[in-house]
Design brief:
CATH architecture of the largest domain: 3-Layer(aba) Sandwich
CATH class of the largest domain: Alpha Beta
Bound molecules: flavin mononucleotide
CATH topology of the largest domain: Rossmann fold
Largest sheet: 8 strands, mixed
Radius of gyration: 19 Å
Helix content: 25-40%
CATH superfamily of the largest domain: Flavodoxin domain
Number of domains: 2
Number of strands: 14
Structural class: alpha/beta
């Protein structure tokens, strides 16, 4: 089958999943390109995708697909549409997230024809305690682009989508149990904050507001993605968690992308 349209769907608060999705798309070399960024909101109406080879990229949170991404993906439907589920994780492990994503998109009507787990800088990585800092790097992006080329070769050799079975990936069902979410949210250093409100614009769950002349993060709706910490132009936002030191100590050895295509 020949596909000359590609559709990227991504949830990517700190941009690493989006970077991988773009790099894979580059390797596909299709004429037409659509994207739906679900980082800040889900599509208003159900989006039906039929003729587009679809790359779906999301981060791993607690060994599972980020919950907000799962919720927003429910706004898509497909009918035997080939898809490439991709998870991006911060060099600890992706546990059952790739399997969960493949199962989720299959229920929406996609057929996962290939899948991958890539590494991105951990949301909790800090300058003095780096965890996969700077990833995906040039080598990761090259692997992603090569993967895109392989995917196109595979898809082009398929006679009929009804006849192929979904790609098998690593992971178990029942999926890993979710742990409790950290109760704290990022805080603002008021001596640095200029109240530019950029953090309000980029927060994926609209958890930030101005309260009594200061930035306030609602810990209930904050998903701890650290978009506001990493992207604050003044470096005024911080999120201190004991996970940073633990991850830095135990998960600094470089991991490599895992690709599933056979
Ligand atoms: C709440 C939370 C939980 C996370 N859990 C994991 C995990 O279980 N394993 C892992 O390796 N990385 C984990 N990470 C790191 C992210 O998967 C990683 O930083 C990813 O690159 C973020 O994707 P994005 O840049 O597209 O937002 C977690 C990050 C957050 C915010």
């Amino acid at each position: 089958m020949h596909y000359n349209k590609v559709h990227l769907i991504y949830f990517s608060p700190t941009h690493t999943s989006a970077k991988i999705a773009y790099a894979i798309a580059e390797g596909l070399e299709t004429d037409t390109f659509f994207e739906t960024d679900i980082t800040h909101e889900a599509p208003e109406h159900i989006e039906n995708i039929e003729e587009e080879l679809t790359i779906i990229a999301v981060p791993v949170y607690g060994g599972r697909v980020a919950e907000t991404a799962i919720e927003r993906l429910q706004k898509f439907s497909a009918h035997n549409t080939p898809a490439v589920p991709v998870v991006v994780y911060g060099n600890r492990d992706y546990d059952d997230a790739l399997k969960e994503l493949c199962d989720t998109v299959a229920k929406l009507g996609f057929i996962p024809v290939a899948a991958g787990a890539f590494i991105g800088e951990h949301s909790y990585s800090r300058e003095n305690m780096p965890i996969a800092a700077g990833r995906p790097d040039a080598a990761d992006l090259q692997k992603a682009t090569e993967f895109g080329k392989e995917i196109m070769k595979k898809v082009s050799s398929i006679q009929s989508l009804e006849s192929i079975s979904a790609v098998q990936v690593k992971g178990n069902f029942p999926y890993k149990q979710k742990g409790p979410s950290t109760p704290q949210a990022p805080v603002t250093d008021n001596s640095l904050c200029t109240l530019c409100e950029y953090c309000i614009d980029i927060c994926p769950t609209h958890a930030i507001s101005v309260r009594d002349g200061e930035m306030f993060s609602n810990p209930e709706s904050c998903i701890k993605c650290c978009a506001c910490v990493k992207d604050c132009p003044e470096g005024a936002r911080t999120f201190d968690t004991p996970y940073t030191a633990m991850l830095h100590a135990n998960f600094s050895a470089r991991k490599e992308p895992e690709l599933f295509i056979k």
